[in-house]
């Protein structure tokens, strides 16, 4: 950092450029999530109308063939698309880029129309930290312990684990679709 005068602190140009780059990444990710919401809408309609029924075993098999998704990922897309048909608030959050596909995918595993609002709040709470510019503290010298005041995440279960999801990730576990 450069200090210009007694009380003015300026940020190093490289840090500003990196923050701008980070903002562009987050913005593009939100656009991708919005496009994914539209894709899931189309998949739900195609599946409901039986568009895959011309020789394919399932909509997931058709997706794997037509757009090159791995079969497990295609099954998950169909499962999530179907689930969002009865979860309009979660669908809208994905369409606005407010919640990621990864988070929506996790939430749709447990959401029902009765629990949707509460789970949406859990998803939003987990996303606020990233929007506010929270940066995790780096561990020093491989320390694994969680001392007082540590920002290192504790092992999570249930809804707490859901708030840790962010991008699409490598886990494309298969669910029957």
Brief write-up:
With about 180 residues, the chain is mainly α. It has helices at about 15-50, 60-65, 70-85, 90-95, 100-110, 115-130, 160; strands at about 1-5, 10.
Task: Compute the number of structural domains.
Answer: 1
The unreliable regions are 132-177
Give the total of beta strands.
2
Q: Could you give the order of strands across the largest sheet?
A: 1-2
Contiguous helical run count: 7
Overall morphology: flat
Distance between the termini: 54 Å
> What about the largest sheet?
2 strands, antiparallel
Could you name the key traits of this structure?
single chain; 177 residues; mainly alpha; two-stranded antiparallel ribbon; 54% helix; disordered C terminus
Written account of the structure:
By secondary structure, the protein is mainly alpha-helical. It has one domain (9-133). 54% of the residues lie in helices and 2% in strands. Strands 1-2 form a two-stranded antiparallel ribbon. β1 (2-3) and β2 form a beta hairpin. α1 (13-48) crosses α3 and α2 (59-67) crosses α3. The longest helix has 36 residues, at 13-48. The radius of gyration is 20 Å and the shape is flat. It starts with a strand and ends in a 15-residue tail after the last helix. Residues 132-177 have low confidence and may be disordered.
């Amino acid at each position: 950092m450069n200090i210009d005068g007694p009380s003015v602190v300026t940020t190093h140009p490289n840090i500003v450029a990196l923050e701008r780059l980070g903002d562009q990444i987050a913005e593009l990710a939100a656009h991708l999530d919005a496009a994914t919401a539209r894709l899931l809408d189309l998949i739900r309609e195609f599946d409901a109308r039986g568009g895959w029924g011309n020789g394919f075993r399932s909509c997931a098999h058709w997706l794997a063939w037509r757009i090159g998704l791995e079969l497990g990922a295609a099954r998950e897309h169909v499962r999530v698309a179907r689930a969002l048909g009865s979860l309009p608030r979660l669908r809208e959050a994905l369409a606005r880029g407010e919640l990621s596909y990864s988070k929506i995918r996790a939430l749709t595993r447990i959401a029902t129309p009765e629990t949707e609002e509460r789970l949406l709040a859990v998803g939003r709470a987990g996303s606020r930290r990233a929007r506010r510019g929270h940066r995790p503290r780096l561990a020093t010298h491989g320390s694994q312990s969680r001392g007082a005041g540590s920002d290192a995440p504790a092992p999570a279960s249930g809804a707490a684990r859901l708030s840790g999801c962010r991008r699409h990730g490598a886990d494309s576990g298969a669910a029957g679709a």
